[in-house]
Amino acid sequence: MRLATLGLRERAATLGLTIDAPTNWSATAPLDVAALQSEMWSEGYFVVPPCLPAELVARCRAAIELVLAAGAPALASFAFDAPWELQRLLAAPAAAALDDTARLRPAFWAWRLTADEPRGWSPHRDRPGMAIDDRGTPTSISVWVPLTDATADNGCMYVVPAPLDVQYANPRASLEVLNLQCVRALPAPAGSVLGWTARLLHWGGIARAGTAGRISLSFEYQAPHDPTPAFASDWIPSPAERVALIEQQWDQYDHMHEQPPERRERLAAVLAALR
Questions:
Q1: d(CA 263, CA 271)
Q2: Could you tell me the pTM of the whole model?
Q3: Which CATH superfamily is domain 34-232+240-273 in?
Q4: DSSP-derived secondary structure for 20-76
Q5: Backbone angles phi, psi at 204, to 5 degrees
Q6: How many CA atoms lie within 13 A of 37 on its CB side?
């Protein structure tokens, strides 16, 4: 039986999950900016070894498990403080990748691959027309965090590195993987930070039956000269703002998640229970 929405906040409190009472955290390892930039600008993506507090990663994971048990999609976990607290720690690698101040786009998601939803999103490019400036520097990126170890068995990320993608320079590039030998798997331990330009072709894998599918979340960032509306990277939305943003994400990514209408209804019910 699914966890009743009645008492959901009380159950959250036992897991250390708060709403509108954020705390500050610090990275557990220094960021190697030079290594990140070298990989980002040569390959179109970067991988930073585990550097996020294990307790904060665990809280984000618990938030996702909690809302899933209540029948809502993982996206509802953004009602809690933990994902936004973690987002603040992603601002430094995002700024390094952009070689500029990072601004937070209203674009985020969370996943747990299960028997019912065994696969990540299919091959796509996030914002191919606005990803690179005239100098070749990224202006729009995605940052993805595995909250559990991401492996080839449980659905890690896959990319086509920029130098191996003959369409990478084309802002209207197709989503077809033209050469399978160019595909690169990106297994990563929990608490790692992965990022890629908004033009990079990437996708989530399929979890093998019987495995505990990977749990993850992502945010998007842009350089300050990008005209698209965005927020300061240290911004934490109010509970009401979170609900509006979560609902916006559901509609914005409808073509990617392909969930039935009843999932939208359950999302709304759980968000209402958490107010």
A1: 12
A2: 0.94
A3: q2cbj1_9rhob like domain (2.60.120.620)
A4: S-------SS---HHHHHHHHHHHSEEEEPS-S-HHHHHHHHHHHHHHHHTT--GGG
A5: -95, 145
A6: 11
For residue 152, give the DSSP letter.
T
Contact between 270 and 139 (Cβ < 8 Å): no
Q: Give burial (CB, 10 Å; 0-12/13-18/19+) of 116.
A: exposed
pLDDT digits (tens, 9 = 90+) for 37-84: 999 999 999 999 999 999 999 999 999 999 999 999 999 999 999 999
Of 219, 185, 221, give the one whose Cα is nearest residue 86.
Answer: 219
pLDDT in tens, 94-124: 999 999 999 999 999 999 998 667 889 999 9
Token code pair at residue 100: 């500029």
